[in-house]
Design brief:
42% of the residues are buried. This protein has 452 residues and is α+β, with helices and mostly antiparallel strands. It is built from ten helices and 20 strands. The chain folds into two domains: 323 residues, Beta-lactamase (3-Layer(aba) Sandwich), CATH 3.40.710; 73 residues. One of its GO terms (molecular function) is hydrolase activity.
Length: 452
């Protein structure tokens, strides 16, 4: 593990100090993850040392842990993301909504649980919440609508499937295997006190903290910087066997898009996905923000650069929540990732199948790309573009873009893809072009439109 350069750490500290001072946070801890480690951190304000071992409340970062517990059930074959909730958990008004919709905030569930503000009052069980049709606020799959209530229900789903409390499942199946032993449902050991800071004066007021019970899976967990860094390493691909890397990749695929965000923002399965403003083309961050009365938190990773950044603070509001993303931008600018040296490797298909193909008259190119994958995209002009991974029986399956999930079949004459036929020459008369090819083939354009 190479340490960050002194000039980089100075830049990171300057940004962190400015955010803490301008945001008037009683205390703040920030850190950067690289090469599987927390390579830099700083504590500002009234935070005791070692600052990396002080618990702060994670808020909605807890949803990522909840999603992992659900996806473990899916990977075991206990459920499917297309299953309606009613198949596994009865007695809610969301029975016809799917598990995948709940994970991606597309189920139309209400933003909050009924009754008092759950983040500041003692929690109750799901039955005691008394959910009704009034808690269904939108049609299924119609639009993104962030729902704390939906993740409370998912926690109950996990508890029902495992036969024990969600917090116990999260501890035994996620937190302990990842080494996150200082992540707990309630503050334990050295923990920061949550405060509200007065908007017009430099005074603070203690915020309450209770067991959220049914709503705990939406925002209950507390963690240290060291533990939150380990979750960042998990999102970067070191899953510790808790999930397969393919499932983590699945989590990061945008599903529900938050069109109200000032920049490109979406939601996958228990994680937020964003393309920050002013970031280099192709930069996508994965992670989650979190807030509870008295606390703000953030964890974001850049999977391409292999870096992550975190922020923990004990203030209810007023802080620049872009700190973690800003730290990543600082590292990217000061110490950009050095690409691995290129080396020849055998293509996953005969090289004769690669190169130009035509969808009608439109030129495309099929390339071999790293990881044993294929890429089909426009040649010299925009076009529908997708990567493909090997599928069964010599076929290929779309991973992203327009052809995600579609099957590609290759032979020397044509590429067959979602009813489209790509040929070696535009409308090749020797290929099975849908609708056939005009007998006269390619001719000069007529001087005027022919009469019929």
């Amino acid at each position: 593990m190479a340490p960050l350069l002194p000039t980089t750490t100075r830049t990171l500290l300057a940004r962190t100090a400015r955010v803490q001072a301008e945001g008037r946070a009683p205390s703040l801890v920030a850190g950067v993850v690289r090469d599987g480690e927390l390579v830099w951190s700083a504590g500002r304000g009234a935070v005791s040392e070692p600052h990396r071992d002080v618990q702060y409340r994670l808020g909605s970062i807890s949803k990522t842990i909840t999603a992992i517990t659900v996806l473990r059930l899916r990977d075991e074959g206990r459920l499917d993301l297309d299953d309606p909730l009613e198949k596994h958990l009865t007695g809610t008004p969301f029975g016809d909504r799917t598990i995948g919709q709940l994970l991606s905030h597309l189920a139309g569930a209400g933003a909050e649980s009924p009754g008092q503000w759950w983040e500041r009052t003692p929690g109750t069980t799901l039955d005691e919440l008394g959910l009704s049709e009034a808690d269904v606020v939108l049609p299924a799959a119609r639009r993104f609508h962030y729902s704390n209530l939906g993740f409370g229900v998912l926690g109950e789903l996990v508890a029902t499937a495992r036969g024990r409390a969600w917090a116990e499942v999260a501890r035994d199946e996620v937190l302990v295997p990842l080494g996150m032993r200082r992540t707990t449902p309630r503050p334990s050991g050295r923990a920061a006190q949550g405060y509200a800071v007065h908007p017009w004066a430099d005074v603070v007021q203690v915020e309450p903290e209770h067991d959220a019970v049914a709503m705990a899976p939406a925002g209950q967990l507390w963690a240290t910087a060291d533990d939150l860094a380990r979750l960042g390493v998990f999102l970067l691909g070191d899953t510790g066997g808790v999930l397969s890397p393919d499932t983590v990749e699945e989590m990061t695929v945008p599903a529900g898009v938050d069109s109200s965000a000032p920049a490109w923002m979406a939601y996958g399965l228990g994680v937020q996905v964003q393309r920050p403003p002013d970031a280099p083309v192709g930069t996508v961050l994965v992670g989650h923000g979190g807030s509870m009365p008295g606390f703000l938190a953030g964890l974001w990773v850049d999977r391409t650069e292999g870096t992550g950044a975190l922020m923990l603070a004990n203030t209810t509001s007023g802080l620049d929540n872009g700190l973690a993303a800003g730290l990543l931008a600082d590292v990217r600018a000061a110490e950009p990732r050095i690409a691995a040296a290129w080396a020849p490797s055998p293509p996953p298909v005969p090289v004769e199948l690669l190169g130009p193909w035509f969808w009608g008259p439109a030129p495309y190119v099929l390339r071999a790309v790293p990881g044993g994958l294929l890429h089909l995209g426009g040649l010299g002009r925009p076009g529908r573009s997708s990567r493909f991974r090997p599928g069964p029986d010599g076929t290929w399956v779309g991973m992203d873009g327009y052809f995600a999930g579609e099957t590609l079949r290759l032979d020397e004459v044509a590429l067959n893809l979602a009813t489209f036929v790509f040929t070696r020459t535009p409308y090749d008369g020797n290929a099975p072009v849908p609708g056939g090819v005009a007998e006269d083939g390619w001719t000069p354009a007529p001087q005027r439109a022919p009469e019929r």
